[in-house]
């Protein structure tokens, strides 16, 4: 099953490493940086938005959340320990710590598989 992952991050190196790990595990990933424009018309079965704490509260992030309303399944995931509250109502599905490269990909893969099993 196709899984689209949008990664809104100001931590590009960690983001690229995680997505590389996930791609090796047969996930189809799409990276979206803060300077990029969110793609329109996302209609894939599952969209995970991985958010780093540095983007919390940004207008870019709010636009991404607005876009996500159109998705079949939208699961926002915070990367690292967020220190700020989101300025709008959205349920955060999970928190993943990017500082542990040995466990982050496996932890995320397990999370993704549980989401896909639940929603697909």
What's the quick description here?
The chain is of the alpha/beta class and 120 residues long. The protein has helices at residues 12-23, 59-68, 101-119, and strands at 4-9, 30-33, 47-51, 74-79, 94-96. The protein has a single domain (4-119), classed as Rossmann fold, CATH 3.40.50.
Q: Keywords for this structure?
A:
120 residues; Rossmann fold; 3 helices; TIR domain-containing protein
Describe the structure.
- There is one protein chain.
- With 120 residues, the protein is α/β, with parallel strands linked by helices.
- The protein has a single domain, classed as 3-Layer(aba) Sandwich (Rossmann fold), CATH 3.40.50.
- Helix content is 34%, strand content 20%.
- It has helices at 12-23, 59-68, 101-119, and strands at 4-9, 30-33, 47-51, 74-79, 94-96.
- It has a five-stranded parallel sheet, sandwiched between helices.
- Helix 1 packs across helix 3 (101-119).
- The longest helix is centred in the C-terminal third of the chain and has 19 residues, at 101-119.
- It is flat and about 30 Å long.
Tally of separate domains: 1
Roughly how many Å is the radius of gyration?
13 Å
Strand order of the largest sheet: 2-1-3-4-5
What is the overall pLDDT average? 57
The sequence of SSEs as H and E is EHEEHEEH
Main structural class: alpha/beta
Q: How large is the count of helical segments?
A: 3
User: What spatial form do the alpha-carbon principal axes imply?
Assistant: flat
CATH class: Alpha Beta
**CATH fold assignment:** Rossmann fold
Amino-to-carboxy terminus distance: 9 Å
**Strand runs, count:** 5
Strand proportion: 15-25%
CATH architecture assignment: 3-Layer(aba) Sandwich
Helix content: 25-40%
């Amino acid at each position: 099953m196709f899984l689209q992952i949008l990664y809104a991050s100001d931590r590009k190196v960690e983001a690229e490493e995680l997505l590389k790990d996930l791609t090796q595990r047969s996930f189809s990933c799409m990276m979206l940086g803060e300077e990029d424009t969110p793609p329109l018309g996302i209609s894939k079965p599952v969209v995970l938005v991985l958010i780093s704490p540095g983007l919390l509260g940004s207008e870019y992030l709010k636009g991404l959340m607005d876009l996500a309303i159109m998705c079949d399944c939208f699961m926002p995931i915070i990367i690292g320990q967020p220190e700020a509250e989101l300025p709008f109502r959205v349920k955060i599905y999970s928190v993943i710590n990017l500082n542990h490269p040995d466990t982050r990909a496996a932890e995320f893969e397990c999370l993704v598989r549980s989401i896909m099993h639940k929603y697909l």
